[in-house]
Automatic annotation (TrEMBL):
Species whose genome carries this gene: Holothuria leucospilota (Black long sea cucumber)
Keywords: Signal
The protein's name in its UniProt record: P2X purinoreceptor 7 intracellular domain-containing protein
Keyword Signal: yes
Pfam families: P2RX7_C
Residue ranges of domain P2X purinoreceptor 7 intracellular in the record: 1-45
Extent of the signal sequence: 1-17
InterPro entries, alphabetized: P2RX7_C
Amino acid sequence: MAYRQLALWLCVGVSLGKGNRMVLPACCVLRIRHEFPDETYVGFREVQEALQMD
C-alpha cells in the first residue's frame, strides 16, 4: 500500500496500472522497507539461485 500511495503522490494526474508502471526512487523504497519490514521478502535472486531453492 505504501508503494502505491507514493506512486500516486509522485505522479498526480498520471494513470498507473498494468502496462503503465514507474520506478520509485531507491531512497523511498529503502525507507518503506525499513518502516514496514516483511519477513517473507528475500529480494532479487539470480535465476539459477531461485531455481535451486524451489
